[in-house]
Amino acid sequence: MKNIYILFIILGFPFLNNEIDAQNKQEKQVMFILYNQAKSWNNGNIEAFMQGYWKSDKLQFIGSKGVTYGWENVYNNYKKAYSTPSLMGQLKFDELDVEQQSKKIVTVTGKYILTRSEGEVLSGYFLLVVKKIGGKWKIIRDYST
To answer: How many CB atoms lie within 10 A of CB 50?
Structure first.
């Protein structure tokens, strides 16, 4: 009986390692979205920032003003609220925690910090639901405070 357990452990490790490697790869891909978003934002490029979001009418952004549906509406809200480089400031993410919910769903919690040139600092917390769609990870829901 002991030999069966040993055999199971020996045969099971490669599968376990492959699963862990796949999960780490997915988490890195999701983190890369946030890295690109911060980089695009800090370069004053809202359209490039929006590439991390699902380009769909079903995209949800939930903030202090309620729920906004649709990629185009979220994009227009960002353009209106952050119409100049000084309003955009510099974006940084902190306290990030990525958790895989399934093979196609990952959640990310964290803190955003927006520092403007006048020394004003805006910050809050967020929860992102990120889904693998067409082989690419996209933010499908953004709950930001």
So the answer is: 20
